[in-house]
Amino acid sequence: MLTLNQVPNLLRRSLWLIACASATAQAGLSAVVAVEPTAKKATYNIYFSALDSALSRAAAQPVAASASEDLADVMRATRSAGFDIFIGPAQVAASALHRGYELVGASQASEPYLLVVRKDFADIPALKTRRIYLPQQDSIYTYMARGLLNQGGLSMQDMKVQHERFPQAGLTALLLGAADATVVTAGDWAEWSALNPTVGRVLAKTDPVPAGLSVVIKKDLPADVRARLSAWFAAPPAGVGLPPTKFKPEAGEYKRVSELGLFTPTALPGVTRVSARDAQKLQAQGALLIDTRTEKEFAARHIPGAVWAAYAEKSLKDIAFNAAQDDFSALGKIDKLDTNRALIFACNGAECWKSYKAARVALQKGFKKVYWLRGGLPEWEAEGLPVQQNAAP
Question: Are residues 102 and 119 in the same domain?
């Protein structure tokens, strides 16, 4: 008989999910603790036998708890609502919040993530082909790294990525010259840089995102069960080893994470980036504004005079995206236009890649005057410019 260690990774993951589903069937409720491998602050000594019984008492029904360090599996479980309770880093909670869960809270205050490099690197483009130290691919650190690099115009595919176990060890890798860049929390950077002031520098940082462990619970559980569990997580017994959820991050902070921290670059070579007011002036001069969002979004509200041409993306949210994986057949609406016609592409703001990708495709098709409204409809509305609502595309 094969031991578990002899089973291939894919099968092991399947067995893990099956075992969890079995536990769910046998118990009243199921919970999973998604462990982001770290050293120091984010290490929690959770006693699962105590966690099971304590949660069962709080919920007044059996609760089976399990743990996993395979964040890819846990993320898949959030998409299928595989557990009643998710306890894990921000990206796990963020994914679940889109799929019928509500937030209980987080164990640490929100803080920014920083892209830290050795001092001889002046900007993000200089990191091309260099080494970046990160935890596993579904780690919050890796999510933030991808976003910060993309925003600076660099793809992770342009770098040599070292996926290791402990995020904070990336700073040691910088110190030893084993890596050129890493991503850490602002708190870890402050502590480390005070001891090593001449080694590294910060090139970019995110807005604050939830830190530590976040807890989410299925919305369709009875209200009294959710209330009891929320109260329990706010002050779990010391013997369980679980930190209390003292903090209640804003929904926007999880939204930031749920979009994978993938911000579009601030510039697109060959394309002119414009503000909302610039776009309005260009429209008045005859430029065609193309809204690449979904039909439903366009129908709800859009920029007056905009043409709807949806960009259906399946490719990575990355400057090295493969356009062949996407569907921009809607561009056929404008294929017959004079390539000298000015085109402005827009979607849902700086974290929406549809307009970025569409603008690049248009450039490749030979259009000579391509503009990109990176801030999209959110920027347009923030400027107080008119919006057309409830119109059919």
Answer: no
